Amino acid sequence: MSIDLETAARVAKLARIRVGDDALPELAAEFNNILGFIEQLGEVDVEGVEPMTSVTPMRLKRREDEVTDGHQQDKVLANAPDAREGFFAVPKVVE
Amino acid sequence: MMSDMSKMTLTQARDALRAGEVTSAELTESFLGRIDAAGALNAFVHNTPDLARAQAAAADRRIQAGDAPDLCGIPLGIKDLFCTEGVPSQAGSRILEGFVPQYESTVTRNLREAGGVMLGKLNMDEFAMGSSNETSVYGDAVNPWKVDDRALTPGGSSGGSAAAVAADLCVAATGTDTGGSIRQPAAFTGIVGIKPTYGRCSRWGIVAFASSLDQAGPMTKTVRDSAIMLGAMAGHDPRDSTSADIAVPDFEEMLTGDIRGKVIGIPQEYQVDGMPKEISDLWANGTEMLKSAGAEIRWISLPHTKYALPAYYVIAPAEASSNLARYDGVRYGHRATLEAGEGIVEMYEKTRAEGFGAEVQRRVMVGTYVLSAGFYDAYYNRARKVRTLIKRDFDQAFEAGVDAILTPATPSAAFGLGEMSDADPVQMYLNDVFTVTVNLAGLPGISVPAGLNAQGLPLGLQLIGRPWEEGDLLNTAYALESAAGFVEKPAQWW
Lengths: 95, 494
Prior knowledge:
- The structure holds two protein chains of two kinds.
- Chain A is mostly helical.
- In chain A, 32% of the residues lie in helices and 4% in strands.
- Chain A has a domain at 5-42.
- In chain A, strands 1-2 form a two-stranded antiparallel sheet.
- Chain B has a domain at 2-259: Alpha-Beta Complex (Amidase signature (AS) enzymes).
- Chain B is 36% helix and 13% strand.
- By secondary structure, chain B is α/β, with parallel strands linked by helices.
- In chain B, helix 5 packs parallel to helix 6.
- In chain B, helix 4 links the parallel strand 2 (75-79) and strand 3.
- The chains are: A mainly alpha, B alpha/beta.
């Protein structure tokens, strides 16, 4: 599997990381290098093997479905780059 | 006593505090002075002297009142990955510049409630992604060990923690380990570090890298110190659904040093091509030490070892790409300045390009790729199946009666900062070749300093234990530590 410039640009877009056109060839080369390393996994016979979902055989605990936390608007907004009137503010999303 | 105060182990400091031979205020002051004088190591990145003095005073009152848990009054360093209330916590990343948590991570809360004193936050690779502490926004942390003109890496990602403990800037430190980030830096700096069983320590409030692999653990001067500190960090936490509701035993009490009849497995697959002689010699010596202590040595096979690193470099980036999606410039941390006409997508893309360093960007994008439509089965699902097989290898060894497995901790001693900068990323990833299997299998693993190489740099051995049997593992490590008798310290040049 070889990553071309178009694929590298698509991956950067999906990851929401701006990558300039001039940086794409190097990025694609790095992807190819890492993916070449990962390709070894193709040698393993995984027929009938379940993909791991939990490393320790534990069942997630259950609890009553009730509110246990909240009313911390000030704390939630304390680190926001832009908070106004109790909300996170972002550039216009809907035209 | 006063002149050697900073050299005390956690055990010695605890006993001296309880005996009234020293106060936490005195201890804390001594470390604050040493931290100020150790700027060249770049280990501490956010100092909290006022908080430390207040906590020390409170600890002294507790000790006087006869209420002194093990950690009471002990000056500690905290890895920057832990969210600490009111204290900057930025995971070594520009994207969390200025972030001040409004809450305390469970592990640091446990330490705080036990009376621990926080001296400050410690340097680390950005988002714990690195093996040399060179991806940090704070710049490189530097290894206190030095044998020539070169500045050496303390390892990573918990490089600041390792440097600080080795240089006596704190009694002990917290670390986290996703692929070897406690054990490799511990080995590079001649200290002890344990990654407990997945689920032993709560992950709540620790900045997430790869959630199915991340675990917190102590980095200390001795095995006994690790036993004490792990006991204080561990425990069930309803706020982390993967935290195990299993009682935490008194690990210190389990240190008898008696390992007669224990079966130690030596995995043949860890004899990798091109292993330096100093590493294979160290491994053979360690094997001999455990045998002399009465353990039975048995060759074992962990046939899927070779595939652990490639599986890790699918699973960890995949989880990272998902976890790091939250850094979007909306709720906390850095937000890029926008040009006229730019909208929310540009805000995300510019914020993340400016805020993440090169290695983090690379891993987020690799993770995005292996999870993307058409490649999910070929890469991500296949890696998870291989992970099942890697864990099965260990299960079978333990079922056959093996109590612990002995391996080298790292493929080399500490290397020079900058020496790997021209190497491709995969070369750096090979640092984790002996440690990463343990995270994939969720097992406890400990690095114990076992000797010096020809140049005079420390080398570590790793012991891997059965799940939830950290007490037994620590006891085997204690026997190894006693036999190895490693007492060397770096000469102070900083």
